[in-house]
Each structure stands twice: as C-alpha cells, then as structure tokens.
Amino acid sequence: METTRTQSDIDDAREQQELEDARKECRRIIERHISSSKILGHADVKAYEIAMSDENLASQGKITNKEKIRYIRKEVGDKMIKWLVKEAADLEKKVRGGIAAASGKWISSTKAQWWISQLEEKSVPFHQKHLFITKKAEQEGMSDVKSFEAFVKNWQIVAEQAEKLRQTKAPVIAQLTSTDVPEIAAFRSKEQFIALPWKKRKALLETVAAAVTAKEQLMPHLYKKAKEMLDGAAYNNALSSNKVGAWLRRIFSSGHTSNDIEKFLNNEGSMPLQRLIENWSRASKHFQDIQKRREKLGPQSPRGFHFVHMDVFLNWEWDRRSTYLEEAEHRFNDIRDESYVFLKIRHELDAEDWDSAQELIGSVKRELDDGTLLMSAENRAKLQSLENYLRVHRKDDKTEKKEEKHPTPTEMQDEMRSLIMQLPHQLRRMYINALNKGYQSFWAMTTLMYNRVWCHQHNFLDPGKEVVLERNSREPTAQRRKHGHSDYGFEANVMKGENNDRGAARNQSGVRGAQVLFTNEQSTENLVEEINVQKNDRNFWYWTSIIPEGVQYSQHLEVVTALHPRMKKLARMMQERGVNLGIGFDHYDALPDHVATR
C-alpha cells in the first residue's frame, strides 16, 4: 500500500536537504581555504564537522532544522570560518617572518625547520597552534613571553651577545677548558651554539662570561669553588641548572675584589653563598609541600591562582619565588574567612590586570591612612604580601611616567564602544547589558569569563571536554530547574533552549563547589540578571565559569588578556566621573552589523 506524503513530510524533507546543503557548503568553504593554506589542515575540517553535527547543535539548543540551518550559515559560514582564516593568516605571517630572520643567525636551520613543521602540522587544529607559543616559551624559561615576536627577540639578544663575547674575548676563551665550562666547544662554534635550546644558550653564555672574567682577574680557584657550590645547589633542586651561569656571572662581574669573593664563598659576611643556597633549598621544599597539598585537595585546590611547574619556579629570581610562595600559601585559606577586598585583589593579580590590582590596593591603603578602615596585624601582613606580589610579578613598566589624560564623557563612551566592537559578536550584548547594570556587575561578569581561562590552563577544561560536558548536562539542568540545585560539589548547567531561564544557574550562596554555565546570545538577559543578583557573592564569582556559545577558546583568551584590563580601567574611570556606563547602546540591535574578528 502506497503511503501518501503530507505537506509536512515534504517540508521536513526539503529542510533536511537544505540542512545537508548548508553543511556541504561550509565544508567546501573550509576545504577551499585549507587547500590554499599551509597552516590549516584536516584537523580543522574535523573540528568544524563536529561543530555542525546534529549532536553538537542539539547540545547548543538548536533543535529544529531551521535553527540548525541558520546557525550553520550565519555562525559557522559567515563568522567562525572567516575568523579562523584571518587568525591563521596572521599567525603564519608572524611565524614565517620571524623564522626567516632568525634561521642560521639566531637559531639553527634545523630548529627553524622544526618551527615551520609545527606550524604546518595538519593533525593539530589551529587553536592549539595558537596556544603553542606561550607553552613553548614557558618550557624555554621565558615565562613572561606572550608573543612570537618577543620569542624571536630573545633569540636575537643571546646570539648577538655570544658573538660579541667571541670577538672581544677570543684569546681568553681559547684558554678555557671543559673543566672550566663543560660545553665550551659548543660555545666556540656558532653553529653548535645556536642549535642548543634557548635556555641552554643563555646559561652557557653567562657561564662563559663568568669564566672569562675569573681568568682575567686571576681567580680561577674561586671560580671553581663557586661553580661546584652552584652545581650542587642545582643538583639538589635548590636552583635551576640554567641559573648557574647567571650566578657565576653575577659573582665575578660584580667588581668585588678576590678577598670579597673569597669571603662570600667561605660562608663569611651577612649573606654568603651558602646561606643563600640554604634559603633556596627551603623555598624549594616549601614549593613541593604546596604541590602535595594541591594534589591532596584535587578539585578543591585553590582556584584562580596560577600555580607553576617546578622548572618555571626555579627559573625565577628570588623575589619572585618568595612572593609566589607567600601568596600561594594564603590561597589555601577558606575564602569565607578572607577579606572580601583581598579576594578581589587576588583575582586581579591572577588575571594579570595590574592596574586594577594596584588601584584596589591603593584604595585600601588610603582608607587605612585616613582611619576609615581598621585592619588586624595579620591582614596588614596579607596586604603587604599582595603589594609585594604585584611589585615583583607585573611585567609592564611601572616606573614610566605617562602623561595623564582627561578624556571627556563623550570620548570615554566612544572608547568603550570601540572596545565593545573588538569583542566577538556573540559577546557584545552580554558586555553591554553588564555595563548597564554598573561596574560591580561588569566586574563579576569579566571574572566569570576569566575563570574559563583558568580552567583551561589547569586542565579542568579543553574544547573536547566542553563539548562532552555540555551534551551531558542538558537533562541534569532541566531536573535541577524543577527540583532544585545541590548545595555542594560541582555542577555544569546549560542556560539555553528550554533551560534558558535564571533557574538554570545555581545560587552559589554558601556553596563551596565549582559551577560551569553554558550560554548563548539568547540567554544573555537571564545570565546578566543572575550575575547582577549574585555579583557580590564571593562563592559565585570565585567558583563560576561562563562558556559562551560560538566563542572559541583562543578568542576567549584574547578577550580576557587583551581587552578586559582596558575595559575595566575605562569603566572605573567612567564610574568615578559619573559618566553613564550604558555607552548609548540601549538595544543590541543598535550595534553595527559587521563582525569584529578579534
């Protein structure tokens, strides 16, 4: 018996075909760009196929074929792919340009080829290549490096200093033996030298410079003793092996007499080398104790703070190590027992928003000075610890005198509009609405955005985990909306589709447990309203993360690191001068149609 097709069946079939056509068109666009790009590959095609799959679309609240078609054409086809192509082209230009300048001069041609091969690896998706530079910099001992240009500059500086030393001190270098400097042969050969990892090149340069000075000043016996002591400290994990050369150079290029240096090495004076090594050893043990406590606490380990690996810690100068340990220790205190303003200062330090941290610290100190704030000796010590951490860890020029600007209210609003337009389009409405609620709501929203970055940096989240977590959290969210949220432990809640209301978010009051909120543009109103209600609750902004739909992690990271400090500083200035934070965009529809890609 022949089945009669209804109009509904025909419409469904047409929409299903239209959906498949939309997917095929996006796939053709991606493959076309990949065919002309050496940096993009099949891993990126796979990532977008996952993004367009029924499973992923459903997890984002796209249920009907019309919703799926609209999302694929508008979000994937018109925006996400364009962003990918532009970002890939920008990164490729920077890396190829830097490698071309460095190859054979500052790094070996083999190492240059390795960098290009990493860039062109087809099995690695672009977002991982985007983050690779920062991770590689940390491995190389350049923990402050955030751009490839800075990476190349460090290569150049060390290579040029080494070449200058070879030319100006050639007779002395010829006298050095492998006993003086184990890798002296590698230093004498430019080709061998630039083939070493950067941290090895830097350490070798400093060791040779110290050995040369000791030879010239007829102190080889003191050099030998200092090197033995420092090598021993490195062997016992009290000092990075890459810092031995720096310390040798510091000792023998200090201008001190042989008598002064001998006392320093023989445990005489106020702070001899042996006592320094003992301090370093205690610091390393303290670091290891902190790591053990973190492992024991697991998911309840302090959040926000950027805990580092032992290798990174040992590469730091002493001030940075000591302030890190002091501040890390404070993070184990229950946040319910900590001063509210201290938690805010710590967040700004964790987010490396140095201006915001400095302003908060300054505000507390002014209140202490004029007597409007009373503080215990213990809390004064914590405030000093925060100030010390800021002084040592901030990377911008703190001493540079900048001309103070006094923009008009209109100029401030125009600047805020400009910053809003640099956001991915999916975020603009959320930022505008949060600004309309006032600075504290805006600050809380930026904090929730930062928390996603922290979760990625500490391996709690990655793009794959986020997809699975969202897919598995839709039904639990619906149940929590009906029956209530838990008052402890972790929750992932999807504020989309049928779950798009404020009840999808857990009220964090009194809750010690992380919450991840999956959101989209349609949930903006409910999300910002919930942020406004919970903005002053430390358990809310400390434990909650936002994962906005359609915002890739590399985009999210750039917003947090590059735009947040500028936006927050401007918003504070506007608030202090009584300027409306609403910036004149009363409705999201008033925003220009074009898409900001960065």
Helical proportion, percent range? 55-70%
Strand content: under 5%
Structural class: mainly alpha
Oligomeric state, counting identical vs distinct chains: single chain
Task: Write down the Rg.
Answer: 28 Å
Number of helices: 28
Estimate the global geometry from the Cα principal axes.
globular
Distance between the termini: 59 Å
Query: Could you tell me the number of beta strands?
Result: 3
Overall pLDDT confidence:
87
Kindly report the spatial arrangement of strands forming the biggest sheet: 1-2-3
Query: How many strands, which pairing sense, and closed or not: the largest β-sheet?
Result: 3 strands, parallel
- Provide the number of structural domains: 4
Detail the poorly predicted runs.
397-401, 586-598
Concise synopsis of the structure shown:
The protein is mostly helical.
Word description of this protein:
By secondary structure, the protein is mostly helical. It folds into four domains: 9-140, no CATH class; 169-266, no CATH class; 298-393, no CATH class; 410-577, no CATH class. It contains 28 helices and three strands. It has helices at 7-35, 42-51, 54-59, 65-102, 109-120, 126-139, 148-168, 170-175, 184-188, 190-195, 198-216, 220-235, 244-252, 258-265, 273-297, 310-315, 318-330, 340-350, 354-369, 377-393, 409-421, 425-437, 439-457, 463-471, 474-483, 524-534, 538-543, 553-576, and strands at residues 491-494, 515-519, 544-548. A three-stranded parallel β-sheet has the order 1-2-3. Helix 11 packs parallel to helix 13 (244-252), helix 21 (409-421) runs antiparallel to helix 28 and helix 23 (439-457) runs antiparallel to helix 28 (553-576). The radius of gyration is 28 Å and the shape is globular. It starts with 6 loop residues before the first helix and ends in a 22-residue tail after the last helix.
